[in-house]
Amino acid sequence: MVSKDSCRNEIRAAIRQLSDRCLYSAAKWAGEQLVGIEQDPSNFTPANTRFQRGSSSIRRRFSTNESISTPLPSIGFSQAATPLPEEDEAIDGDFYLLAKSYFDCREYRRASHVLRDQVSKKSVFLRYYALYLAGEKRKEEEMIELEGPLGKSDAINRELVSLERDLSALRRTGAIDSFGLYLYGVVLKEKGNESLARASLVESVNSYPWNWSAWSELQSLCTSIEILNSLNLNNHWMKEFFLGNAYQELRMHTESLAKYEYLQGIFSFSNYIQAQTAKAQYSLREFDQVEIMFEELLRNDPYRVEDMDLYSNVLYAKEACAALSYLAHKVFLTDKYRPESCCIIGNYYSLKGQHEKAVMYFRRALKLNKKYLSAWTLMGHEYVEMKNTPAAIDAYRRAVDINPCDYRAWYGLGQAYEMMGMPFYALHYFRKSIFFLPNDSRLWIAMAKCYQTEQLYMLEEAIKCYKRAVNCTDTEGIALNQLAKLHQKLGRNEEAAFYFEKDLERMDAEGLEGPNMFEALVFLATHFKTHKKFEEAEVYCTRLLDYSGPEKEKAKSLLRGIRMAQTGFPSMDLEHFPI
Amino acid sequence: MAGLTRTAGAFAVTPHKISVCILLQIYAPSSQMSLPFPFSSVAQHNRLGLYLLSLTKSCDDIFEPKLEELINQLREVGEEMDAWLTDHLTNRFSALASPDDLLNFFNDMRGILGSLDSGVVQDDQIILDPNSNLGMFVRRCILAFNLLSFEGVCHLFSSIEDYCKEAHSSSAQFDASNNNLESLTQYDQMDMENYAMDKATEEIEFQKSASGIVPFHLHTPESLFKATEGIPYGIHTFLLRENLEFLRVSGLLHTRKETSRTSKKDTEATPVARASSSTLEDTLVDESLFLRTNTQIQGFLMEQADAIETHGSSSSFSSSSIESFLEQLQNLAPELHRVHFLRYLNKLHSDDYFAALDNLLRYFDYSAGTEGFDLVPPSTGCSMYGRYEIALLCLGMMHFRFGHPNLALEVLTEAVRVSQQLSNDTCLAYTLAAMSNLLSEMGIASTTCVLGSSYSPVTSTASSLSVQQRVYILLKESLRRADSLKLRRLVASNHLAMAKFELMHVQRPLLSFGPKASTRHKTCPVSVCKEIRLGAHLISDFSSESSTMTIDGSLSSAWLKDLQKPWGPPVISQDSGSRKSSTFFQFCDHLVSIPGSVAQLIGASYLLRATSWELFGSAPMARMNTLVYATLFGDSSSSSDAELAYLKLIQHLALYKGYKDAFAALKIAEEKFLTVSKSKILLLKLQILHERALHCGNLQLAQRICNELGGLASTAMGVDMELKVEASLREARTLLAAKQYSQAANVAHSLFCTCHKFNLQIEKASVLLLLAEIHKKSGNAVLGLPYALASISFCQSFNLDLLKASATLTLAELWLGLGSNHAKRALDLLHGAFPMILGHGGLELRARAYIFEANCYLSDPSFSVSTDSDTVLDSLRQASDELQALEYHELAAEASYLMAMVYDKLGQLDEREEAASLFKMHIIALENPQGVEQNMA
After folding, report:
1. Shortest Cα distance from A147 to chain B (angstroms)?
2. Closest among A281, A299, A298 to A290, alpha carbons compared
3. Which residue among A149, A153, A425 places its CB closest to the CB of B266?
4. Angle at which helices A423-436 and A441-452 pack, to 10 degrees?
5. What is the value of pTM for the model shown?
6. β-pair partners for B63
7. B210 has pLDDT over 50
8. Where are the TPR repeats (chain A) (predicted)?
9. Which residues partner with B128 through β-bridges?
10. Do B454 and A428 touch (CB under 8 A)?
11. pLDDT at residue B584 above 50?
């Protein structure tokens, strides 16, 4: 177990080093984790700690395993503590100071020019980093200048070539530090040389683990679990953060949750971990829990916009209009030109049934970030609502092309084609979506419905799908009912009775009533009657008698028939039992 | 002119266009001189003018020549003043030091134009008429430049720098390459700008020369089914082409629509242009690619699609190179969805099912089927719903091609339903055609109920109909719709399909009631002929409307290609008058060129003609039609069609000229087609080898080949039916040759059942003949007779004359087998069939007939050898001559034996000995087939 103090000291130094190199987002991340560590109570007044989250009663309810106080089994934390690198110059050079201020004013090219003859490692890194950012800025501008009717132009960062040349030369001579390696990895990644980029980033994080930006770049290069496992990473607590994130992206939510739970032992108040946990829970569809977590998160960090789109999804699913509008208003005031904000507002309008406005805000979100996956999918949903199927298909397809594992978009595509009366065509898309999420009963039911359409009428296949849905614990109970009905339609009464009975059991357990129940009872009663199992038939009939309406009459007549069969015609019984 | 239809917005200034402008300035300087400075003669001046004209024409091409290439061309055009021209060009470029110079340059350009209303032009003054082609070009350049924002000018400026730098660097590399191989390859890479086109032209030229060299001749009876294959494939590809053709047309409509909306952004050029030239590996495509307007790109994509289809996946035209190119194109222009369709085509031709499916779906997801598939004018609307029925149509055809008939049928049924819902009649017509094609092609057993329930016009009557009748109804329906919608190509291809149907199926009233029902149980060659003719009418239709079909995008590259031909060395020899007129005609030629799809369709009609003659039994006609196809349509056809033509010719060779020639020809065809996906060459090779092994008596080899043949077929039910039938037919024949009669009969019987189940009528005739043959060989002539008679009646109803002649021969042999008292009857039968056999039969059939004739005479008790020996001997001599080429030892031995007997009777001992030794030789060869096999290897 790493001591909290050593963590604290490491992070404090790292923040200073990162901001010296103008790696601001990494510094920001590190800062968040720094305050996420539980404060030493002896150093602070109780008033100070009161605001920390541990005091929240809601939190207690959900953190079952009181992991804060109990020492955790050290899973691979027997790490060699990575020594903090010494700064190579005690006093910063004048040119460096000038360049940094230029950099802070976003005059990148100027900053890089000032540092042209500097040799200290910090200055060299800043020079290349500024150059890289200058190229990125120019690239963005060119993209707009050169954009044609057929989409983007091939604008590229023109500094990449010289950067790659210089950095690889530095690397060969060994004059490169871990920050340089990070930049080299980024450059290689943009040039499409993924394996080299990975190697460079691994080297960087192994020598300097506190640079979260490097970890994130590395994570984006780990597209499969095989790649992830093949990385040769030193043990460090930062690695646990990385793994948690990587598992999540690879849809291994329980593994990811385990990592975060472990990390919470040290960083008990980290907003980041809280949000990540909420994300994983969201994927596991634990909406109630996620809602509470987000509420808490917002209480502690009211101006947070990151990840709030997820919260809005939860609110949407729970149809909490007021809460959603409150959230939308808040993020709107905080920063209205964040893709997340637009997405939240879009969600709100969608919930209110104003689909045109919702589309407008999703569009804005996409304008801000073209690769914003969930906005594409949500926009697809809106278009479906607006009955503009081609536009919906287009939106879904873009989502799928950004991330082919997005089962929602595949599902949406299938739905859209089914809506247009092309069930056979739609099947392919449903199959795709099921491939990525084989344990979701909703998908199986959708596919079964597709097979059931009058155009296809492939009932055997539909039955197979419903069976899979039942195996995936279908919460809405559609599958059992449909299975029973299909079997009934195909004249397989034994199977039908089996599934009606199961469905009845389910409804009893959940205390549900309704037409499905009547249907099941009537069928079972008549079925058992025709099979001469009068006792069972009577049980179902008497249950039916509890309800009013035509079913009651039906039950009465059935009962009469049963009595007749049992008593009225003893001669028939004699036939059955020849002496 | 097509140029007029576009606005200036669709026209971007590029460094190459600036080069052309500079040259124009030289051509028509604003000074008043009859002959400007560097030119020494009017002819020289005119030649530059003509060159400039073609350059401006070709400006719509997607590739622009690099400076270096331009200089090379100038060298050929400019003769002695080329150095001056080049220098001037490069100097002008190097004089452009700042964006301001560009501005001045275009201001100067204005000076070379005459004023629009100037009626008074002095005789000796050279002035560019603003309304002439060159004038228009200059005006468009100026306008496009004036429309540029300052950023645009900066980008143009930096691309000019690259343009000049590149020329320097590549020429430098070229110098270095003389002593360095590595840099030579690099240079090659750099120079691959026109790689696709060059390859394509090379390929076409190769095809031409190949088909010119090979001395091909005629055909074969037993692989009847083989032959008809060209058509279905043709239709599939044709449908694809049709779609693409519409891609092209709608591309134009699209851009027009955009311009009319006056939205500047849409019509503005797509200056994707050059990436940085710094890395060599990137240069392959980026560097050379100037993507500019939609039309250009679409024209280019059309060309690529044609190329994919023409070359299939043959090695010289690798699909991966296209793929990588398309990938890059997609990166450059992600909103250009047609690229997905092209990728689909490419994958389809390289047999990559998953990638093809993926790309097809992606294309339709993005474009909603509206981009490029405006089969009906866009004004009719229904764009709200997209055109996903076309997606279904394409998906169905894809499944068909990959051999999933049931999936294909499901999808096509859905396509029918959706197009009915959206009342897209055009798509419906195509779908019905595709469906009938599928039904006729795939062996779907008549018992399985296939057609979906929703298509009312068909299903109301169809439920009780056989597959054939459904095909007929579908075809009729499709033809009717296509006719009313004026879809010429679909009409034509439907006529061809109809011809094929008429050829293969007996005419029978659809609903048969009462005794009159069976009045006409025959195929009707006249109607086949009529349908084929109707199909070929297309060409006259198209020559009248071609001007609207061809669009500059794809045409413009032809301008430059031609340019290189007439300006070759012979031009230097100053016979300019005639030369120029010929160039002119070549230019004109392109304007009335027939679209590739039409040429392909007409080619298909020739193939069908050849096939029908093959079936009807006229070898010369079949051969002639195939040759017409191979020579006239070889370069425009898809690779598998061309392959089919070659196959037919080789089969003909094997039958009529013996194996040696056939193998020689096969070798040539193999080089050409073996890499084509689903190549039939291997099949043909096995067939010929099998035939030869049977003749030589090498039964083990024959059996092995049979097994290999069977292995080629897919295991799925109802797929590759011809191949399966072929394999078991050959197996039965092998067993027959091995004298295992009962097994042979078993195989033949089950084969007959299969044919019956899958409605392969024509194959039935040959299977029946084989059964008769088996019984004849087993000495059971009585049993054989009914089979032979049944076969003859089948042949009659399908008008299979040659097969009928050969069945008659078998019948006669059976009669003779019943005893010598039937010799007279047998002889009469034979003589009835003789004209057909001798006129059209292959070597084997003829030899058999001759030997049998001799046999008849000899067994006829009333015939005396001594008086009439010549009759017998002539036949036998003929027979042994023909068998020589065929290496058919068994029959040859029989002929020699008979000859020896006759000579013996005549008492001519020398001749007898000779014949006897021949007999012995053949017998030894027959018993010792291994030696022959070694020869074969």
Report:
1. 7
2. A281
3. A149
4. 160
5. 0.70
6. B289
7. no
8. 339-372, 373-406, 407-440
9. B113
10. no
11. no
Nearest to B869 by CA among B918, B902, B833, B822: B902
Which of A422, A429, A450 has the highest number of chain B CBs within 10 A, making it the mutation to test binding with B? A422
Instruction: Give B682 to chain A, closest Cα distance, Å.
Output: 35
Across A214-223, A548-557, B222-231, least confident range:
B222-231
Tokens describing residue A535: 């006792």
B916 class by beta-carbon count within 10 Å (0-12 exposed, 13-18 middle, 19+ buried): middle
Asked if this assembly's ipTM is beyond 0.85, the reply is: no
The identity of residue B220, as a single letter, is T
- Output helix, strand, coil percentages for chain A, rounded to the nearest 5: 70, 0, 30
Q: Is the dihedral of CA B431, B433, B438, B444 positive or negative?
A: positive
- State whether residue B381 sits within 8 Å of chain A by CB: no
Backbone angles phi, psi at A151, to 5 degrees: 105, -155
B335: nearest CA in chain A?
Answer: A150
Contact across the interface for B335 and A151, Cβ inside 8 Å: yes
**Do A394 and B418 lie within an 8 Å CB cutoff?**
no
Determine whether the interchain pair A393/B365 forms a contact, defined as Cβ–Cβ distance below 8 Å.
yes
Nearest to A148 among B271, B370, B418 (CB): B271
Which long-range contacts does A51-59 make (Cβ < 8 Å, 24+ apart)?
A52/A269, A53/A268, A53/A269, A53/A296, A53/A300, A54/A268, A54/A269, A56/A296, A58/A292, A58/A295, A58/A296, A59/A296
What is the DSSP-derived secondary structure letter of residue B757? H
Which of B155, B397, B414 to substitute to test the interface with A, most A CBs within 10 Å? Answer: B414
Both tokens assigned to A567: 């008593």
Which residues are CB-neighbours of A274 under 8 A, at least 6 positions away?
Answer: A293, A296, A297
Dig out the tokens for A232 from the structure. Answer: 């040769």
CA B200 to chain centre: 14
- Three-state secondary-structure class, residue A345: helix
Q: What angle do CA A518, A524, A527 make, to 5 degrees?
A: 135
Q: What is the DSSP letter of B569?
A: G
Tally Cβ neighbours within 10 Å of residue A173: 8
pLDDT value of residue B542? 57
Q: Which residues pair with A151 in a beta bridge?
A: A148
Candidates A424, A431, A454, partner chain B, best to mutate (most B CBs within 10 A):
A424
The whole-angstrom distance between residue B341's C-alpha and the CA centroid of its chain comes to 20
Put simply, the answer to whether A154 touches B275 (Cβ < 8 Å) is: yes
Q: Map residue A567 onto helix, strand or coil.
A: helix
**Which residue in the set A146, A393, A456 is minimally distant from B271, CB to CB?**
A146
Report how far residue A238's alpha carbon sits from residue A218's, in angstroms, rounded to the nearest whole number: 13
Distance CA B234, CA B160 (A): 46
For B464, list phi and psi in degrees, rounded to 5.
Answer: -95, 0
What SS3 state is found at A2? coil
- Collapsing DSSP to helix, strand or coil, B318 comes out as coil
Copy the structure tokens of residue A18.
């990162």
Which of A390, A397, A425 comes nearest B392 by C-beta?
Answer: A425
Complete DSSP assignment for A494-542? HHHHHHHHHHHHHHHHHT--SHHHHHHHHHHHHHHHHTT-HHHHHHHHH
Considering only CB atoms, B392 lies closest to which of A150, A389, A422, namely A422
> Which residues in chain A have Cβ-Cβ distances shorter than 8 Å to B365?
393-394, 396-397, 413
- Averaged pLDDT, B310-321: 60
CB B397 within 8 A of CB B437: no
With 0-12 / 13-18 / 19 or more C-beta atoms within 10 angstroms meaning exposed / middle / buried, residue B37 is exposed
Could you give the CA distance from residue B477 to residue A299 in angstroms, rounded to a whole number?
70
The length of chain B is: 937
Would you tell me how many other CB atoms lie within 10 Å of the CB of residue B130? Answer: 16
Highest mean pLDDT among A314-323, B407-416, B519-528, B565-574: A314-323
